[in-house]
Amino acid sequence: MQFIDLKSQYAKYRGGSTGIDARMQAVLDHGSYIMGPEIAEMEEALAQRVGMKHCISCASGTDALYLPLLALDIGAGDEVITVPFTFIATAEIIRLVGATPVFIDIEADSYNMDPALLEAAITPRTKAIIPVSLFGQVPDMTAINAIAKRHNIPVLEDGAQSFGAEHDGLASNGLSAIGCTSFFPSKPLGCYGDGGAVFCQDDELAQIMRELRAHGQTRRYVHSRIGMNARMDTLQAAVILGKLEHFDDEVAARRRLGARYSESLSDCVTVPKVSPGNTHIYAQYSIQVDDREALREALQAEGIPTAVHYPRPLHLQEAFADLGGKMGDFPVSEKTSQHIVSLPMSPFLTQTDQDQVIAAVRRALKA
């Protein structure tokens, strides 16, 4: 059994005049491997889907977080508020621009930023807030945006895991001043390598980020600022375009499979809560159990793969040791990191395989 079944996805979408193979062959034929026409086509389609004026594609989800901080001129002496229960890229880029990450805890049931803790963390040095839309659903962006607006602080949604999810009828990555997503292969909308995108409404900010991703160029060999090489490969855009026409069906399948897992397991494990006003696309289907390793070993014995996202919160990582974080600082994140485990999940998970996972979990827990 596959933890994420990308092989079945490719087999289904590879053929036809607009399939993945044809899209990639078109790139091989025209030979514009960097910033070819598929890049602009993809950016326009994604911007329209998210409901933002601008989509700036880039080389990875990490670059999608890094570019806005550079464009906002955030650096030494500044603070950026985020959460400790996330992949390191969220806070890594804060350090890379020279700023200081300020962590606040998550909600116990959604695993996302707790808005009730946000205002107390804001100081005169706070220059941005990065809530993470974890596991496939967004935080309470309505509450977060309202607090940020009172303090005139931009909100950057880390929507790497939630492309296709909604909050109050609006799309993830289109919920704040800036949305950032990833096209890593395992993400809900993934390419066949690294890739990412930034979304915004502001024309000037979008232009700055477009220049930054290509060495600060305004035009060839004319550089208005110090930038970086963060361009997305044309071949990766072709893969996204080959998948995009099927994406609504995949979102529906994810929601159906996630709901079925929850209905079948809610009496024996802690299942993910869908927050009010949200849709959940289950980039990972993550449960909490008392003895995670025992469950993982039992499932492995039956040929069922699992994963842990994330076993150590960022405030306890050596890379952030100078911040002085210690056990007990963020108890919800710490408890979650000790009990969370993700089960096989993809739009191509068959009902037979899902039934096998459900039965194996119940056997392991004797439920």
Write up this protein:
This protein is α/β, with parallel strands linked by helices and 367 residues long. The chain is 38% helix and 13% strand. The chain has 13 helices and 13 strands. The strands form five sheets. A four-stranded mixed sheet has the order 1-9-8-5. Helix 3 (37-50) crosses helix 9 (234-244). The longest helix has 19 residues, at 247-265.
Short description:
With 367 residues, this protein is of the alpha/beta class. The protein is 38% helix and 13% strand.
Instruction: Identify the CATH architecture of the largest domain.
Output: 3-Layer(aba) Sandwich
| Alpha carbon gyration radius | 20 Å
String of helices and strands: HHHEHEHEHEHEEEEEHEEHHEHHEH
Q: Low-confidence spans: pLDDT under 50, at least 5 residues?
A: none
Q: What is the mean predicted local confidence, pLDDT?
A: 97
Q: What helical percentage do the residues reach?
A: 25-40%
